[in-house]
Amino acid sequence: MTLLGWTAIGLVLAAIVAAAVPLGGFIARLAAGQRTLLHPVLGPVERGLYALGGINPSQGQGWRGYALAMLAFNAAGFALLYAILRCQDLLPLNPQGFAGMSPYLAFNTAISFVTNTNWQAYSGEAAASYLSQMAGLTVQNFVSAATGMAMALAVTRAFLAGGLHSLGNFWADLVRMTLYVLLPLAVVLGLVFVALGVPQTLGEYITATTLEGAAQTIPLGPAAFQVAIKHLGTNGGGFFGVNSLHPFEGPSALATALQIWAQNVIPFALCLTFGVMVGNRRQGWVLLGVMLGFVLAGTWAVYAAETAGNPLHLAMGVDAAQGNMEGKDLRFGQALVALFTATTTGASCGAVNAMFDSFTPLGGLVPLFLIQLGEVLPGGVGSGLYGMLVFALLAVFVAGLMVGRTPEFLGKKVQAREVKLAMLAVLVLPAVILGFTAVSMVLERAVSSLANAGPHGLSEMLYAFSSAAGNNGSAFGGLTADTPWFNTTLGIAMLLGRFAYVVPVLAIAGSLGAKPKVPASAGTFPTDTLLFAGLLAGVILILGGLQFLPALALGPLAEHFSLLAGKTF
After folding, report:
1. Torsions phi, psi for 83 (to 5 deg)
2. pLDDT tens digit string along 194-219?
3. Are 313 and 568 a contacting pair, CB within 8 Å?
4. 402 burial class (0-12, 13-18, 19+ CB within 10 angstroms)?
């Protein structure tokens, strides 16, 4: 690790926080239906969309109505995307003549992009037509991200006052987040990526002759704007198979730094939106501080592990100056790889600029564990905030147990119903991840897809289901996932990880919103202090450790000690 590397990390994180402050306030004004600088241009478009859909944006919805609208919208999106992927060979803008995806792969991919996971059991440049990429995948990149943001706003409104029976209007939140936040940012960032060398063309692939005289096909396509929204929406699905490690998706260190900025700015901003909306900005800064602390810790852990190098290589006398560079690009260096890895897996993004399968065992443990902690550090757009609020409710419950007092959060009593629903949501991830991993490790059809045996093979399997259930979408590598078993089970894991989590969270919001708001008293535990930030971080770590440490001990930790002993599998 070097001072220059940490300086680069610090500058990127500072740029994220600096942009998150005004963006958080902007989103809060949108959530309240207030006018912004963009309304003179985009206001007529917004009103036209409401008229076209027969929507009254001022008509509130209870948590059930909000949830049903969200589920119906996503079901329609799944059906449309599945049809596009299955029939892409019959549709235009397919200059490579790609065939339609198989039913299993189309099911997995459609579920993946609708749930904001963007897991890809295929290489985009070898399987998806331009129309599928633009009208199918990119559209879902926008609306799945906007769905998450809408859920976060709905949960936030539960703390605004007492006796609330409305969490807002899903359709209005969806339109506003897409039209005023995601679309303008994606247009600007997409143009920047074009200037930095990311292609944006409908032209056919190019065949070039190498210096050795061999023919090489160079894939192109409308990549720049999909790259922009894949990061801004914490989607992560790559236009090309190796994602941001591809020279057309990550053409330079500057482009990589911008991608790190993009995949974190909205999750951080939504914390500050929460503080503005509830009338206590310190609450937002506490949540942001916990997220930023975990990002720094994860970055340090990856940076330290990868710069230390592979013990087997060091024993053979390999120069340790560069550390473990397998699966990485010299253009980015260890610092930006470490920051990208920690933020993309902590942010539920799934984009990668290095191959995790080639990391050292401890380096590979970090992104795996960050996903398993619940994708709240900082989490996906929207999902990070409402996931963090679930942990905040559990933290005040723990505090209440310690002092023998009914816990409160922002003036709302947290009682048995809310705690039960919170635990129901939290237990979705371990049940899906560990359950599917356990079954897959004893099935020959699943184990045969692994590239490695022993602890590393377990890590590959565990990571796949962690990434799917956590709606992250990044791949550890070494797993042949385009099989009926994995396309089906990973698709189910993505579905449960998104909707079996968020529906109980909306139920919590409905319950809390209906409760009266009680004033703070001398016995109220303050939730805008460093003490609460420490308690919140502890609850997240303890829950993650209790649920996943045994599995991690059999995977990356066992592999680490094996390498130290000079053993491989």
Report:
1. -65, -40
2. 999 999 999 889 999 988 989 998 99
3. no
4. exposed
Within 8 A by CB and 6+ apart from 324, the residues are 305, 306, 307, 308, 309, 310, 313, 358, 359, 360, 363
Tokens linked to 90 = 């019959």
**What is the amino acid identity at position 431?**
A
Contacts of 92 (CB under 8 A, 6+ apart): 131
CA distance readout (Å), 440 to 449, 450, 457, 547: 10, 11, 12, 19
- The rounded distance, in Å, linking the Cα atoms of 265 and 228 is 13
Listed in sequence order, the residues at least 6 apart from 250 whose beta carbon sits closer than 8 Å to its beta carbon are: 243, 244, 256, 259, 329, 331, 332, 353
DSSP bridge partners of 218: 206
Q: Give pLDDT tens digits for 54-99.
A: 999 999 999 999 999 999 999 999 999 999 999 999 999 999 899 9
pLDDT of 539 strictly over 90: yes
Residue with tokens 């994708």: 375
Prediction pTM value? 0.94
Please report, for residues 90, 146, 151, 500, the alpha-carbon distance to residue 507 in angstroms, rounded to integers and kept in the order given: 43, 20, 11, 11
Quickly list H helices, 355-451: 361-372, 383-403, 416-426, 428-440, 444-447
